[in-house]
Amino acid sequence: MSIAIDACAAQHQGDRKEQQDRVAILPHARRKGVALAVVADGMGGHTGGALAAEQVVHTAKTNLDHFIGTDESPQHMLQNSMQEAHTMIKASRFMNEMDPHSTAVMLLLQPGRVTWGHCGDSRLYHFRGKQLVRRTIDHSYVEHLIATGKITPAEALNHPNRNVLLASLGGQEDPKITLDEVSELVAGDSFVLCSDGLWAYFDDLELGTLIADNSARQACEILIDKARQRGKGGGDNLSLAIIKLIDALPPKKPAPPPGFVPRPRG
């Protein structure tokens, strides 16, 4: 049976004064079955973070529109999108006297192939059913401490420096961009892109279960509601995009015209 796509993007301002996240699911203008999902979490004071995140989405859309797939690899397209966004955000600080930065996580969907890249601590999760297959590793101080064995994942949840990033788009240093891909896709696979305002409130099993048991739209609504409750009035901006691969229903046979009587065989 062929595979269909169930997708939804959503966000909430949380308890912040401004929405500095940006999220989008962008279909390719000319290539059927090709789409790009993007989540960007902007930082940099009033309006600066929002402008940085907006630049990430704008640059990604421009690169998607020019992506043919024959002379450029998906990894190269994603790498270029983030590198170009970094350059544009960095340049904007001289014009706007701000210090804008943004995380980025992008997923390029093509028939039989999903490629993604990220910079910062906005995440991508790949589930098969309810089980986590893999997730991106944050470019953050606490993930560095976990990797070097200095703290445990449980200790990282409440570490005082858990929001310190080691990489972002728009910073003084060249961004660290990590790429990955999966080409063996099955119905039941799902991909979640989200900012830390959402993933901070869920463990892998709960996140996978809620997505497996609901449509993409319903899962977005439930996850936002739960994150808002758990934020207890101190919640960050939160954004997510969910892409679920599901069994495509066979096309319905056209109904016979009124008064049609089938002829007996023989």
From TrEMBL:
Coiled coil: none
Entry superkingdom: Bacteria
CDD domains: PP2Cc (cd00143)
Start and end residues of each PPM-type phosphatase domain: 6-245
Annotated InterPro entries: PP2C, PPM-type-like_dom_sf, PPM-type_phosphatase-like_dom
Name by which UniProt lists this protein: Protein phosphatase 2C domain-containing protein
Protein's organism: Dechloromonas hankyongensis
